[in-house]
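FORM 7B: Structural annotation worksheet

SECTION A. Query
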Amino acid sequence: MKRNYKILFLVLLMAVTSCSFTAKQFNDPNKDKLLIDLITYVLEKGHYDAKTIDDSFSKEVYKDYLAAIDPLKRFFYAEDFAEFSKFEDQIDDQIKNKELSFFDITHSRLQERMAEVRGIYKEILAEPFDFSEEEDINTNYEEVEYVDSRADLKERWRKQLKFSSLGNFYDLKNDQKKQLENTPDMEVKTDTELEVEARNSVLTSMDEYFDFSEDLERKDYFTVYINAIVEEFDPHTFYFAPQDKDRFDIAMSGKLEGIGARLQKKSDDITIMEVISGGPAWLSDKLHEGDVIIKVKQENEKEPVSIIGMRLDDAVNLIKGPKGSKVTLTLKKKVLGNIEDVTITRDVVELEETYAKSAKVEKDGKTFGLINLPKFYFNMEDYSERNAASDVKEEIIRLKKEGMEGLVLDLRNNGGGSLKTVVDIAGLFIEKGPIVQVKSKMEGQEVLEDRDPSIVWDGPLVILVNELSASASEILAAAMQDYKRAIIIGSKQTYGKGTVQNVIDLNTTVRSNEYGDLGALKLTTQKFYRVNGGSTQLEGVKSDIVIPDRYSYIDIGEKDYDNPLPWDQIAAAKYKPWNGYVDFNVTIENSRERMKDNQQLNLIAENAKWVKEQRNNEVYSLNFNNYQAQRENLEDEAKKYDAISNYTSNLTYNSLPYEMEMYKSDTILKEKRDRWHTSLTGDVYVEEAINVLDDIQLNNIKKRKFATIKN
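SECTION B. Predicted structure
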């Protein structure tokens, strides 16, 4: 069945937005009310499984919103909570009537309490802490109640600030002890001096936190409120304020137009945290980490604009801009402290860590290939531009030229992306056939197929996954598993996200919009299913070969969220399993047997259990001697897991020739690849994947007469 790929892959529900959504008039003069009315209407009409907005819905929004704005219960009083509680079952009515009184009262009260707390924490941190007192702190903030008085609020803050200072104090004492071992004649600070230093460090952190909070505007908090509403529909429905939508587009495409520098606000300064390799700032060699940007001037302006004290988002908006335009930055240089003007021509900046990268792996005279794919990226405006599928295809062709005998595709920590790239990547490994089934509220059930009979790689294939492999990663792993085309190695199951989201530009749904950018809504509109009919929702993809990892005992999957859509299944599509392997199941069993005696994996499993136990600890002593004993005991226990990071395999990793040529002019890229290769030598999961490929290679391929693409 032919699929309208524009609906699926270019993330605008044009059929919906041009017909159903615009049938309603949105004429409220208040932008916030307009957003509430617009978003709830879109949810009702477009969500795959729209919820009824009633009293029960209201109670969940109420609970989640308060938890979002005061998660540690360190701002609001019990009397505030009592005042808010009258709205607990009225938010549904407020939504329908476009009333904002609940948001208004909570927002204004939060601002009052934050101003009050700013005085409280400064008052507390002005006095020394007594670390000899016998007291403790419970960090399970979900179970604590709101405080009744300012004295109680101050006491809650005192314990939290003391806990932070105690940790700093312990670290400072330990650092000094280690320094004394190397420099016995150094000047030793007293405990009193160290306590002051520890406390001042916490004061600096708190000042930075509240400076950041003061930069937040009403619209930022209103975004939190909107998302408390929309996330009740499911965990992946989300409202993007205009700035957040820009970040989402950048993340999905892996590129932006600007100068190529990551910025951070420290106090009132906008500081360069990283210069992106290959970008305009990097090519100029005039901007460096630690430089402070003081002013920004566009090429058509006479006077620069000071950005000292400006919101980070506003400063970024001034600095970034379209390709080919020029911007002049006034910098305070980190090294000499001198002031310098630097003019940079903006360009397209590719975020290299977003893109697929490959390595050649050598083992016992054999060559294997490894492709790491961080996400299924694509350009939202033009799919024909750089995307994950075209990059993976190119890396495979390059690896084949190096004599690759087996391929590992690493999808660990890959949270997904474009559905079309999944279909295209899967098609690189099979002749043709269905890849995924999609069920839509509006358009029913459809099958997305690879129709290209050519195969780019017909050799042994292993796919690596873990608990954070989600959505598109799960589709690809599931398809290759159902076809028996690849062996899946990794966690017991993947993330379990079996839903498809489309991003709707809210500006297209309103006629004569006079309020500026309204942002966008990421909306769950479809569920996807394996070709065998099963859903990956909640259950994920179960690995053929299960390997323990650090997430093994931590609840991080879809099933651990509030409001996930349920698991279900549909009829299987017509597909023919791949028959290219001999003793496919024997290879899997050999790997399982091999891992039983793998000390590194057994140690990782033991460490995962230990980490889970530590996460369950919620009560900590604020007495230094007790705290020290607890920390030292933990550090002693942790030492036995040092071997995990010290592990080294006997595999050799190298870049491909095209990258080695790039190293001549891009030393930063070389450093990044060297670090990646070093980490790979200690990666037991990749090592086992190569072992499995080696087994398959020994078993041979039954037939090597598949259609292959011409290189």
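SECTION C. Observations
The longest helix spans residues 150-182. Residues 1-23, 701-711 have pLDDT under 50 and may be disordered.

SECTION D. Sign-off
Analyst initials: ____
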